[in-house]
Amino acid sequence: MKRGVWLVALTLLLAGCAGEKGIVDKAGYQLDTRRQAQAAYPRIKVLVIHYTADDFDSSLATLTDKNVSSHYLIPAVPPLYGGKPRIWQLVPEHDLAWHAGISYWRGATRINDTSIGIELENRGWQQSAGTKYFAPFEPAQIQALIPLAKEIVTRYDIKPQNVVAHADIAPQRKDDPGPLFPWRELAAQGIGAWPDAARVTFYLAGRAPHAPVDPAILLDLLARYGYEVKPTMTQREQQRVVMAFQMHFRPALWNGVADAETQAIAEALLEKYGQD
After folding, report:
1. Which residues contact 242 (CB under 8 A, 6 or more apart)?
2. For a FRET experiment, which of 79, 105, 152, 217 has its CA 20 to 30 Å from that of 224?
3. Which residue numbers delimit the N-acetylmuramoyl-L-alanine amidase domain (predicted)?
């Protein structure tokens, strides 16, 4: 009799534990998740925006081949199903995709390991008379991107300064998504960083926007914000870093020249979002 009472009590105790918050029943075992380690960090910290530089069919073939991949691909004009634009998911978010390549952001390398990549069908740039001309993005494509990016940023608590262009994390190799990508519009939707205009004016301090500044001072600011800046860089490599920053935050002029407005924008961003 006593043994039967004891077994009933034990069963009730275990059932109570299984229903307890933080106790998870599995097939053949239980997980106690009530004590979580402090030395743990989320894997996904960065959202990287790309363009494909190709049409949709070619982009889809490339991104599902063996050499390169991305988590999402958005057509230039997404087809509507039930009134909703369709986006292609090519890699589950919990898996690593090969979209960033050799890269660096805010002290970290191997950005593929810590990021989600979104590819936008877009022709990229063409060159004429030594000048690059970038293809615009379709409004329907940006409207499809915004809710997807919002969900990703919220799901992984991605900081505004970690929503980046491919050019930001690989300025020596990449230009995408280029100066016509609407970063300011996305930032207004809570996706990514953007400087406060009043603080840019403050840091400009009455100087003409395109007045030259010391490139070394500007590059130090960009390094503190997150860009890879090496002491051994050539002048052309330095210009590529400045150009990547300008395409993102001062798209009206992205000539790679260190000027007062670019410096003021960098200072305003550092004040708002902190440094690497």
Report:
1. 215, 218, 219, 222, 256, 257, 258, 262
2. 152
3. 32-178
Strands 72-74 and 115-120, by their bridges, are: parallel
Over residues 198-232, the pLDDT tens digits come to 999 999 999 999 999 999 999 999 999 999 999 99
Alpha-carbon separation of residue 43 from 24, 40, 81, 104 (angstroms): 23, 9, 33, 16
Output the six-digit token pair for 122: 């877009």
Residues constituting the chain: 276
Looking at residue 25, the DSSP 8-state letter turns out to be: E
Q: Are 248 and 134 in contact (CB under 8 A)?
A: no
| Per-residue model confidence (pLDDT) at position 19 | 63
Which residue ranges form the domains of the chain, and what is each CATH number? 46-188 (3.40.80.10), 197-273 (1.10.101.10)
- Residue position matching structure tokens 């590529």: 240
- Cα distance between residue 22 and residue 232, in whole Å: 52
C-alpha–C-alpha distance, residues 245 and 161, integer Å: 12
Task: State the Rg of the chain over Cα.
Answer: 24
Confidence grade of residue 36 (pLDDT, cut at 50, 70, 90): confident
Q: How far apart are CA 276 and CA 108, in angstroms?
A: 10
119 part of the active site: yes
Q: Which residues pair with 26 in a beta bridge?
A: 29
> What are 226's two structure tokens?
């997150």
- Residue 161 φ then ψ, to 5°: -70, -10
User: Other C-beta atoms within 10 Å of 107: how many?
Assistant: 9
Q: Model confidence at 4, in pLDDT bands (50, 70, 90)?
A: low
